[in-house]
Amino acid sequence: MTNTINRRKLLSVTGQSLLLVGMPKLAYAKSNKNIDILNKENVGDWTTRKVKTKINPPNSVSAVMIPLPRLTDTTYQKFLDMQFAGNFKSAQVIRDPVYGADALQVNFEKIRNPEVNINFTVQTRNRTAPEPKSATEDVSIYLKPTKHMPTDGLVKQTADKITRHIKSPDAKALAIYNWVIDNTFRDPKVKGCGIGDINNMLSTGNLGGKCADINSLFVGLCRAAGVPAREFFGIRNGDSEQFKSIGKSGVISKAQHCRAEFFSEKKTWIAVDPADVRKVVLEENLKLEDPKVLSLRKKFFGFWEMNWIAYNHARDFKFSQGQDREFNFFMYPQSFGADVDSLSPDDFKYSIETLS
């Protein structure tokens, strides 16, 4: 039996778990009429994006947790539906109580040759305008430090130097954005997306890294300067109209990407991505002063190209208070019962790909 969960049903999991059990088959159900109607909304404006994840973990793995797209609609992304099936014992959609990160948790206990296939569909359009704050959102949490992102000591000292004599929160964020681009670099040797340990970056003077490092540095410095900010974790899902290096389609198992945003004095969220500016500099073999980079740098303060699917902005968190496992961030499948490298699809035995 295949489970098809449409947008309305999946959004109902807020504050609870949706439990699904006993699914031996691996076939998928066709989209129903409700989904077809949703797919016709904003024709010519929205792009429908489909992603298939297949996981065949080792028998020693008792459970896996798979990140899901952001379920709450925004001006730039809408969740449509999800179907999944496999030979697992049970599955449930869970949400962390602090940041609202959503995951499909699949139980393989005592299952031989475990397998789960997940298809989900979202619609995206480029984020070109500030995003309104939701009515229930507590922005103050995005001023707080986390384990990998302190806001005191060297982080605070650095933020104060960057924003000296600047009063406006938006101007502070712009100064930090420019400082991060000018002083960091993309390090291709860093595994995955990095770990975003910003105090270590500043104390060692090694400001090289990947998206979780560079964009977390922006976020931590903003928080230390009194500007609410957060990372946004997700995955690339399509070619880029900007530069080839910041797009990915087909097999996207290693296309995870972290972005960032800050809370403006105008009470809206502003999109930024200094890490992708640095990625373009390295992988397109360009100089910072190249007119193409200067144009992109200006554009990426207030813009996300949505050839990317947003998952969540959870950082240094647990899915429940009683859970021993703490996550640094959550944009890769995770295993339980056996220590399998989540950054290695070949070892974990997972594949993620785009569907036409």
Low-confidence stretches: 11-44
Mean pLDDT: 88
Distance between the termini: 24 Å
The spatial strand order of the largest sheet comes to 1-5-8-3-17
Helix content: 10-25%
Which sequence of SSEs, written as H and E, runs from N to C? EHEHEEEEEEEHHEHEHEEEHHEEHE
Relative strand content: 25-35%
Put simply, the count of helices is 9
DSSP strand count: 17
| Helix-strand makeup class | alpha+beta
User: What composes the largest sheet?
Assistant: 5 strands, antiparallel
Radius of gyration: 20 Å
* Overall geometry: globular
In short:
The protein has a five-stranded antiparallel β-sheet. A five-stranded antiparallel β-sheet has the order 2-6-7-4-16, with no helix packed on it. A five-stranded antiparallel β-sheet has the order 9-14-13-12-15. It contains nine helices and 17 strands.
Protein architecture, described:
The protein has 356 residues and is of the alpha+beta class. The protein is 23% helix and 26% strand. The chain has nine helices and 17 strands. Helix 4 (169-183) packs antiparallel against helix 6, helix 4 runs parallel beside helix 7 (274-283) and helix 6 (211-224) packs antiparallel against helix 7 (274-283). The longest helix has 15 residues, at 169-183. The radius of gyration is 20 Å and the shape is globular. The chain starts with a strand and ends with a strand. The model is unreliable at 11-44 (pLDDT under 50).
